[in-house]
């Protein structure tokens, strides 16, 4: 599937918003963001500089993101859930924001809840598995 530059930018921005929500940036979060940024075609210096200043960056706004295709939004939510649970727990602020994204992209509540339970209960989901993004590009 072809993903527009705007959708790629929103995908990365959304992951940065999730990582910033709890005011801490862990190594697993950084690795997830790096891996996806590379796959989306972003330059190393761009995302590394962004990661370095993420917590202090007041210009990364958390308005709900609307993607051009529902499949991209679903992929983003799966990767966002994976990022949110990468440190073993997902703060309410991260989950509420992801739920807003689901609503903005007309994703059913039951789909969102099912995916949330899947990522919440998957202890080894971060080992040797691809991101949802990889299945659509």
What do these coordinates show?
There is one protein chain. The protein is mainly α and 137 residues long. It has a single domain (5-135), classed as TerB-like, CATH 1.10.3680. It is 60% helix and 0% strand. The chain contains six helices and no strands. The chain is globular. The mean pLDDT is 91.
**What is the H/E order?**
HHHHHH
Looking at how many chains there are and whether they match, the oligomeric state comes to single chain
CATH topology: TerB-like
Number of H/I helices:
6
How many structurally independent domains?
Answer: 1
How would you sum up the global shape? globular
Number of beta strands:
0
The level 1 CATH classification is Mainly Alpha
Unreliable spans are: none
Radius of gyration: 14 Å
Q: How would you concisely characterize the structure shown here?
A:
The chain has 137 residues and is mainly α. The protein has helices spanning 5-21, 27-40, 44-53, 70-84, 92-104, 109-121.
Furnish the topology, listing elements before pairings.
Elements lengths: L4 H17 L5 H14 L3 H10 L16 H15 L7 H13 L4 H13 L16
Helix pairs in contact: 1-2, 1-4, 1-5, 2-3, 4-5, 4-6
Features:
137 residues; TerB-like; mainly alpha; globular; 6 helices; single chain; 60% helix
